[in-house]
Amino acid sequence: MYSQSGKQGCFVYVSTQSYFEISNSDFTDGTASGSGGAIFSISSTINIKNCQFMNIYANSEGAILAYSDSILNIQGSNVWNTSSDISGGIVGASQSSILIQSSNFDMFSHSGMYGEKLHSLSIYDSRFDDGLGVYGGSIYCSMCSQVTIKNSEFSNCNATIGGAVYLITQSDLLI
């Protein structure tokens, strides 16, 4: 899918108790004036496997927005050059669960993964390169119930506070 623009979820908008699965697909050159440059999800399950996201921009929550009890799974995917003016160059999420496995993220802004009140954030065997943010160059998570990061790498991530990761008031943390 190429060259899409709009207000939210330029490529895919998934709402309320829906299930969406996509694999072996490319999302290139998406621009949202609102949230979720490529995918916007409310109270739904999103499974992304072996996909590529490139040159995605949104005013807030860059490439993917997972909101209000959404479940977001990203596996074996690559994300390059995603940005946001406000938060979450890669993913912005609130009151949801995120699982990331064997994925690569390169050149992103505003704390690549931005989460508030997440039920869980789990990252395994993934790589974050060239991230930029004020709080956490790669990951910002506030009031998240459970954060797990295993076998993952962070390189050239820069922030005013928490170069790679910024966690505040976590209940359960495993790195």
UniProtKB/TrEMBL annotation:
<dbReference type="InterPro" id="IPR011050">
    <property type="entry name" value="Pectin_lyase_fold/virulence"/>
</dbReference>
<protein>
    <recommendedName>
        <fullName>Right handed beta helix domain-containing protein</fullName>
    </recommendedName>
</protein>
<feature type="domain" description="Right handed beta helix">
    <location>
        <begin position="8"/>
        <end position="130"/>
    </location>
</feature>
<dbReference type="Pfam" id="PF13229">
    <property type="entry name" value="Beta_helix"/>
</dbReference>
<dbReference type="InterPro" id="IPR039448">
    <property type="entry name" value="Beta_helix"/>
</dbReference>
